[in-house]
Each structure stands twice: as C-alpha cells, then as structure tokens.
Amino acid sequence: MLLDGNSLTLETFKAIVLNKQKVSLCPKAREKIVKSRAVVEKAAQQDEKVYSINTGFGVLSKVKIDKDQLEQLQVNLIRSHCAGVGEIHTEIESRAILLLRTNVLAKGFSGVRPELVEIGIEMLNRGVHPVIPSKGSVGASGDLAPLAHLASVIIGEGEAYYQSKRMKGNEALQLAGLKPIKLAAKEGLSLINGTQQMTALGALSLLKAEETMDLADLICSASLDGVLGTPRAFMDWVQQTRPFPGQIKTAKLLSHFMEGSEIYKSHENCDRVQDPYSFRCAPQVHGGVRELLSFVRHMLSIEINAATDNPLVNGDTQELVSNGNFHGQPVAFALDILGMAVCELASLSERRMAKLIDPSFSGLPTFLVKKEGLNSGFMMAQVTSAALVSENKLLSHPGSTDSIPTNNEKEDHVSMGPLCARKAKTILENSQTCLAIEALAAAQALEFRLPLKPGKGPHFLYRFVRDRVPALDFDRNLHGDIEIILSTLKTGEMYNAMTKEFSL
Question: How far apart, in whole angstroms, are the C-alpha atoms of residue 18 and residue 282?
C-alpha cells in the first residue's frame, strides 16, 4: 500500500495497523518531499531567523542558533520533550500513531528528507513500535511529548517493542536491520508537531465503536424477544416519518433480527400496549448514535491525511509559514462526541438488562435464575452495569472545552484532545462490558422461553453465547462469563460472526 499523505482511509488505516499490511512511499510523494526539503535547506543557510530551523522553540523562538548547532538543536528538542508519563500505549496504538505521523511526513509539507519518511515506513513493515507513555500532551503545538517518545526511537534512543519484547530503541532497530537517523535541520520538530496521538486513538476507538453499534442492535433484539416485546414500533413507514438514516438503519436491523420469532407470535395479541423506551426508542437512540459516529468518521477521515506540521513548507511556492494546523480542537470536539454517543449505548443496555431481571415486567424468574432467594442470579451483574453507566456519565463531560496555558503563555489555548481520546476509549470499553452483560442476560431469558423459537437475530446470539457460556442454573462466579463474552466484542469475534450470518 502506497503512502502519500492524501489517500489514507480508515479502512486502509485498519488494514495497516491491525492486519499488518505492508506499506511503501508513493514515488510522486517522494518528489514532493524532495522539493519541500530544498526550501528548508536553503533557509538553514540564511542568516535571518526562521522558526524551528535556526531558532529555539516556543517562547525560545527569539533565540538564534548557530549554524554548526542546528543538528544538535533537533536532537535536544526530542530529548527534552520525552517527558510523557502514565500508562504505556499498546503496540497496536503505537503502530497507529507511527503510521499517521509517517503519513503526515509523506504528504510533503514538512520539509524533511525522504530518509526520515522511509525509516518510519520500515519500522511499520518490520514491526518496530516505539514505547509511548499515554499522558503528557495538551493537544496543541502537537502531541509533543508522545511523539517525542516515538521520535526518540528513530534517532536510536528511547524504547521500542520488537517481536513483542520491550527493549532499547537502538537495539530494536538493529534487530530489525535498521539504522538510526541523524536528524537534520527542522526534522526533530517535524516528527513531533501534530495531532497523531489523539487521532490514532480516536480512529481505533471509532472503528470498534462502529462494530459495537451493530452489536447493540443485535443484543437489543434478543432482550426484546426475552421480555416478550414487540417490533411493531420499528415498521419502516413509521421510521420514514422521521427520516434520520441512522434511525432507519437500526429499525431495519431490529425488524430483520426479529423475523421468524415464535416467541413474538405467542403473545401477539397480549394486553401490553407499548414497550418501555429502552426497547421502543432503540431506533431513535441507537440511530442518534449512528449519526454522531458518521460525523466522527468524517472528521477523522480528514485529519488522518492532514498536514499538521509547523512551520509548513511549500516546495512549489518556496514558502515556509508558521501556522496553527497542529491545534487539535476539531479532533477533540469529535472525540468528545464519540464518547457521548457510545455512552448512550451503555445507558440503554443497562435499562434493558434491568427489565430482564424484573419479574413484574418480564414475567421471568427474579434475576433470571431458578430457586430465586437461594440463588441471586444476575443481581450483581446489573449492579456492575449500572456502575459502568454512571462512570460513563462522568467521563462523557467534555474535555474539549477545557484549556490551560503552557510554554510561558506562548501556547495560551490548547485542545486537550488526547484526554478526549482516552476518555472515549474508556467509555467504549465500559459500554462493551454493559452489552456483554446484557447478552448473557438475554440468552438466559431465552432459556425460559423454550421451546418457543426466538427471532433469527436473538437465536443467533443465543447460540453464540451458549457455545461459550452455559446456562446459569445455579449461582457461580459471573466474572469469567462476562470476560468471555466481552472478549468476543473486543476482538471482533462476535461482530465477524454476525456479519457472516446475516451478510451485513
């Protein structure tokens, strides 16, 4: 796959990051890189100040650097900015950040040499993934600290993962058959100025959120059958009267999943006039989530191909311009929206779970277990779900509306985009857990509806869960059950099985 800084999609991002597809530099992109590099080299020979080429950084930009110290300036920049802290990013996350930073350099507006882009490409192809602490960026002037840890490996310092082992950066390069790069003028700053940490984390979360969205519809249908609910509210003509595409899609999926339900036929003429909102309004709520995920996809699809360097270098016009493309505000907004959207999947899921275990509504045994009282069944599973939903409510408070001045007030407004990315990731993980708990409860509810056959969606989910977790006849440790089903959401196993079953 060719990298050119312009044509990366979220699907190719996934193929490279998750499926380890090989990449190479587009020949036309290489030509553009060479042209912009010539502008930097010309500026480096001049006596007038040019930011980041022969000056210090931030408020230190007033300081002129001697020509014989320009290379040391770039090395010092990387070393001084390796100030990240906190949990280390996973190898997948590190690989995603490396890909996006390399793609930015390939765009040809950073003024680096082709060799710098090529070592990023080779690190991807050979599986050298920098060790990057997750905290330390405020999301403006770039994700400086995280990207500095990435850059430190390129110059033979820092730490990296190679063949799943953590080691010194120079050792990882050597084992992979690569040599460190000696930085030239501007190249240090070109490696760290940008939004690639927040964007990479956001892209990974979005792709998983889109899968989780479809699974939420599937699991909802199983709960609906389990509580003797009706799909009548999902009729197409009803949805067309409020034609949000996301709402229509969820309603169609729910209707499709409920086809062939003997359970529904058995109570078609019952006296329940309408279902609670957590069931009846699933198209409206899930559909609203779908609309927001579409917006986030739009924003991130632009950002993964954006030139976020400063200064930007135009090889055609011979211009070198200080700018603000490194500011992460558009991405921060999008990632807050991602978190808020996914939060509602968990909120509705927990309410459906609560209805499943409530005999006054479902008509099923209390907490979905025989010999209630002696057994507590799914009592605490619902409490766990409730705890995660409340945590999500706190985490969904926007980070993008926060700002704190840095760099002696030079950077007086920041985006907090990396915080938004980490929040969205946690909200997604919590929501997946809530859905896993609901899936277990829905399968248990369907046990009590036998021998009546559920709809094809609920039937698929029932079989999927039962292939991995037995029915709950007596109390047992539910942690293991939850983890088993949760892992199928996280790895994509349940999603892949569903899409194969229903040709989605």
Answer: 31
